[in-house]
Amino acid sequence: MVKFNSMTEAIQKADSGKQSVPFWHDPAKRALVYQAVALALAFLIGYYIFSNTQANLRRQSIATGFGFLSREAGFEIGEPVITYSAADTYARALAVGLLNTLKVSVIGIVLTLLLGLIFGVARLSRNWLVSRIASGYIEVLQNIPVLLQLFFWYGLFHNALPSPRLSLHPLPGIFINNRGFYFPLPEAHPAYGWMALALLAACIICYLISRWAQARQDRTGQAFPVLAFSLCLIIGLPGLAWLLSGAPTAIDVPHLIGFNYEGGFSFSPEFGALLFGLVLYTSAFVAEIVRAGIQAVSRGQTEAAMSIGLRSKLILTLVILPQALRVIIPPLTSQMLNLTKNSSLAVAIGYPDFVAVANTTINQTGQAIEGVALIMVVYLMISLVTSAFMNWYNKKTALVER
Amino acid sequence: MEQAQITVHATDEVKPPVTSIGVIGWARKNLFSSWLNSLLTLLIFYLLYRTVPPFIRWAFIDSVWWTGGSACKDATGACWSVVTSNLRFILFGFYPYEQQWRPLIAICVLMGFMLYSNNRKRWNTYLLIAWPIGLVFMGLIMRGGIFGLPYVDTEKWSGISLTLLLSIFGLSAAYPLGVLLALGRRSRLPAIKTLCVIYIEIIRGVPLISMLFMASVMLPLFLPEGITINKILRAQVAIILFTAAYIAEVVRGGLQAIPRGQYEAAESLGLNYYLKMRLIILPQALKTVIPPTVSILVTAFKDTSLVVIIGLFDLLRTTHVTLSNPEWMGFSNEAYLFTAAIYFVGCFYMSNFSRRLEKELRT
Fold first, then answer.
1. Residue B279: CB partners within 8 Å, gap ≥ 6?
2. Which of A31, A130, A341 lies at the smallest CB-CB distance from B207?
3. What is the distance between the alpha carbons of residues A62 and A52, in angstroms, rounded to a whole number?
4. Looking at the partner chain, which of A139, A155, A344 has a beta carbon nearest the beta carbon of B332?
5. Shortest Cα–Cα distance, B220 to chain A (Å)
6. Which residues in chain A are contacts of B205 at CB distance < 8 A?
7. Least CB-packed of A388, B23, B211, B325 within 10 Å?
8. Would you say A66 and A367 are in contact if contact means Cβ atoms under 8 Å apart?
């Protein structure tokens, strides 16, 4: 009893004496101290770097700030998307570089998805030869550095392709030589503007129809042939616009002028090598992701779908793909971002992407900090926008669990 | 009893039809199971027929192996002479010519270690201690200055030795940093968590090139006057900082996979944070992330080739330089195929290893 009393006393003492616990034994206070120390350390390192940089910049009399952006760039850029000349400002030069980066990334991502899907499905083919070849493709391209692949294609295009006078001529109107790839293009005509408008209108109508069809199916269970209808609309409306605005058929075929071809649509060996290398390298990873995604859907799902009497096409579109996509999308996002980030390797083969232009700017102005900061900010923005979009899409397709 | 035996014997005698066993059966099942598959098979056979024999002719039959550059210009096939004549420069770069046996030994030791560690049954404490010792030995034999070997400055390490140095040293230094970052990201303290999240997300959002540019042009500005660090170390710092962010994400995955009960059990034993992590959580988490860590090593190994852009002489750059020699200009396919083969063997071996490990650890 005495013992018990002393114990309760001790407990009461401890309760009332909470304040007397030394602060290094109190987890909440300790956490505060840890965080304060971490913040102070980060601040000190930042301050140390900042003060050193200030001193170094002053000593080497390097200008600071982004004033250089409005000065004349004075260098030429090959294949600009918007009009550009050496007399334009650095800001415009960097914008041209950024557009070039976006151009190669967007085209690259579309081609990568297509090629990756084909090889991913081929990898799972029951045909032994097809699956062996797909797996060989995946293994070889995944395990060779992308920069080496870029150098390889660039060297191949430069050494193996003939000079403009001896251009390869695989199909009528198409010319390939070591200065670039040339394709025929319809001559400019107002009809093409109307066709673009018609295409846009067709897309909007398709979107509205698919929403209406979904709502109707949810309500009544009646399906509507959305895909066939959309295809007709997307091909038909621009076709109608073409017919109504005079059906122009003139085609601008590339032709040899002086030392090179002119006219039509063309791209340089640098762009070709960059696109080729990036697409082949990334599509190998995408193929692996697609394969893993399809394999992640268990066999029971297919069997269950068969047992309720779905056709094989419906099994794929209604049961397998929606589940596989959930597994596929997150790693696919990071592969798309990888492709965009790897497009910065263009600087090594001389394609004027953002990093290449920023690099020239750094070399000319000596303002390394601003240049590298611009590169980082631009890529961070691209990453953030892409991941925001993909997160939104991922949430839309995600499994709704109770 | 005898009757039964006889019936078994009798059914054995009935052989399956010729078309469903052997080569024909296999081909029917795997190549010609439907009309679409048959069409694909025939198409692929045709494509292989059009590409493989010309390639073999180019690479082996019409190729030249041991000539000078001018003799190559007349050959119709591949000019492997570009590799054989420049082999030592491609592999070892500017490492002193008569000392090049030293990186060769270091690489052999490394390969020996990797082959020995391949089998998971041999993993034990001794091996764990032997690895760092082996790496230090490789570094010493390359650097010299002891055992009576002449000193070779790291600036001269080039070719495959630089590639290996950057990737292996980069990963070993990035690993502890990555684990710390992952722990920070999972921390309950908001300030530390925010710092780690900002670091990881920024690094993962930018290309490695921008980090390398930063290291080569900005790092000298960050340091006080008078302190200079050599180019290789600067690139190494960039690779370490970059790889650490990726390792942090992999380790975070491992930490998340540990059930909550493990944390609670450790806390109920009265372990503090350090002991809880060191004795209970990290040993389990790090074991589960061994396969993705090997994949990161593969990526780091491939990514070291990017130092070409800031002018370091790694394996890819030495190949590049060889091709700028007027004698060997224009033989880029052969030289790059050779270098690609080296990278492929290394990466393929490691990614296979990682895949096998993943299978073994899962079961």
1. B266, B271
2. A341
3. 14
4. A155
5. 9
6. 379-380, 383-384
7. B23
8. no
For A151, which of B220, B298, B320 is closest by C-beta distance? Answer: B320
Q: Strand, helix or coil at B19?
A: helix
Q: Which two tokens stand for residue B54?
A: 């010309």
Say how many C-beta atoms besides its own lie within 10 A of residue A262's C-beta. 12
User: What tokens were used for A254?
Assistant: 């590339």
Residue A249 CA: distances (Å) to CA of A192, A238, A243 = 11, 15, 11
Put simply, the answer to whether A152 touches B298 (Cβ < 8 Å) is no
CA B15 to chain A, closest CA, distance in angstroms equals: 26
H/E run at residue B234: helix B231-257
Closest-CA residue of chain A to B345? A143
| Rounded Cα gap, residues A82 and A107, in angstroms | 17
Structure tokens at A187: 């001559």
Are the CB atoms for A311 and A76 separated by under 8 Å?
A: no
Contact B218 A368 (CB under 8 A): yes
Among chain B residues, CA nearest to A386: B205
pTM: 0.84
Residue B153 half-sphere exposure, CB side, CA atoms within 13 Å? 7
User: What's chain A's Rg over C-alpha atoms?
Assistant: 30
The residue to which tokens 């493990």 are assigned: B262
| Cβ <8 Å between B224 and A146 | no
Give A43 to chain B, closest Cα distance, Å. Answer: 11
**pLDDT tens for the 402 residues of chain A, in order:** 455 555 555 555 555 555 567 777 777 888 888 889 989 999 999 998 888 888 888 887 777 777 777 777 777 777 777 777 777 888 888 888 899 999 999 999 999 999 999 999 888 888 888 889 999 999 999 999 999 999 999 988 887 777 777 777 777 777 887 777 887 777 777 778 888 888 899 899 999 988 888 888 888 888 788 888 888 888 888 888 888 877 777 777 777 777 677 767 778 888 989 999 999 999 999 999 999 888 888 889 989 999 999 887 888 888 888 888 888 888 888 888 889 999 999 888 888 889 999 988 888 888 888 888 899 999 999 888 888 887 788 777 766 654
Which residue on chain A is closest to B41 by alpha carbon?
Answer: A129
Q: Does ipTM come in above 0.90? A: no
Shortest alpha-carbon distance between residue A29 and chain B (Å): 11
Specify the DSSP class assigned to residue B31: T
Beta carbons of A143 and B303 less than 8 Å apart: no
Place of tokens 């997150």: A330
* Interface contact flag, B207 A355, Cβ < 8 Å: yes
The enclosing H or E element of A186 equals strand A185-186
